[in-house]
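Target chain:
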Amino acid sequence: MPNQNNWYVVTGGPSTGKSALLTELEKLGHPVFPEAARTLIDRSLAEGISVQELRADEKAFQEKVAEMKRDTEAKIPAEQLTFFDRGMHDTLAYMRHYGYTIEDWVHQLMETSRYRKIFLLEPLPKYQQDYARTEDQSFIDNIQQLLRDSYREFGMEPITVPAASLDERVTFVLNHLKQEQPV
C-alpha cells in the first residue's frame, strides 16, 4: 500500500532523545503528537491509578495505546506535515517483546497505518529512568531491533538517526524532509 500522507514517526527505545527532538521540531512550528503510552500513563496518574496498576495487564495496556494511536491518526489530515512520538508499529514491537499474541484487530491497524518516513533514534550514551520509563538496558537493546523489524515488515524502512547532539539530530531530520516531495 503506497504512502498517501505527510506523517513522520520519531521512534527508538526508551531514553533515546525522542521527546527532546520532537520538542525542538515543535518549536520550529511543526505539529507534534506526544507518545500515546506516556499520555495514557499521565492520565491514569491524574486519576489516582499508579503506573504499576495500569501496567499490571501489559497486553491490555499495549492495546489501549494502539487504540489511542488509531484515534489520534483518524483526526489528522493526511496532507498535514505531522510528527508522531512513536507510530502504530511501535505497539507491535512492544507486544512482540513481551511475547503476546497479536490480535487480528491490532494486526489490521498495522496493515492500514503508514508513514512517509520513520526516524529510528540510536540510543544515547546515558539511559535515564523516570516515573514512566522503567525498562532496563537489555530491554532497550532488544526493542531497538524489534522496532526496526516491525516497520520493515510493513514496507517502511526506518532511517537511523545517529546518537549526536540535539542540534545535529534536528538538522538530520530536517534535511530528510527537504528531500521529500509534498503530497
Observations:
- The first strand starts at residue 7 and ends at 11.
- The longest helix spans residues 58-74.
- The chain has eight helices and five strands.
- The chain has one domain: 7-178.
